[in-house]
Amino acid sequence: MGSFQVRTEARTAILNVTPQVVGQVAEAGVDEGLCLVSTDHTTVGLTVNEPESDLVRDILAALERLVPAVARHAHPENSDSHIKASLIGGSVALPVAGGKAQLGAWQAVLLCEFDGPRTRTVRVTVVGREARGE
Length: 134
Fold this sequence. Notes:
This protein has a single domain (2-117), classed as Jelly Rolls (Sandwich), CATH 2.60.120. It is an alpha+beta fold. The protein has a 5-stranded antiparallel beta sheet, with helices on one face. A 3-stranded antiparallel beta sheet has the order 2-7-4. The protein is built from 3 helices and 8 strands.
């Protein structure tokens, strides 16, 4: 298992963390298996989608419309952040084949920040059959 940190610069943002995930998978030395990307934070989500800037803005705007600020949580300034993170989810699983994380042509692993700016930790767990020496 490995991890990396990401510093977010705004209250809400979607960041492409695919290069870091791909690097962790390569370091794991697993030829065939599964990669779990997760976070310990309750106001951050992880998803697989296209990192195109207009789509990212559309996703954030849709979540803002869907989950306006609410004030029942002990910390009302970020109640909406917890709900948005729950909707997105806290982990993604990727197949590993040929020692590489398998993503479609337009897919990327995206960290969705809903309560920044903060430093976030992303964990990458890779399990499976190790590469065999030829």
